[in-house]
Amino acid sequence: MQTNNEQPRSRMLLLLVLPLAACSSVSTSSSQPPAIPPLPPEARQPPTPSICLPTCSAGLTSARESWRNMLTVPASPASSASATTMR
């Protein structure tokens, strides 16, 4: 005869074994990654013209970096806000 204590334990064991049994089989269905089509010609970057020198490209890159840095540098405050509130 089962006691009241054994019945919940057997149910708990069953609840633990069922998920493990479900994960034990090897999944054979796998989906292929989606195919990425190539860019159309009008979306591609045109080749660099022959009149462009590498030094010009480097100079433009340097100028863009300095402009970007000027936009991201925080401005220094003229005076402290706490100095004006103290007496």
From TrEMBL:
UniProt KW Signal keyword: yes
Q: Write the record's keywords in alphabetical order, separated by commas.
A: Signal
Q: Which residues form the signal peptide?
A: 1-31
Give the compositionally biased regions (Pro residues).
Answer: 34-49
| Region Disordered: start-end pairs | 26-49
Q: Which domain of life does the protein's organism represent?
A: Bacteria
Designated name of the protein: Uncharacterized protein
Q: Tell me which species this is from.
A: Burkholderia multivorans
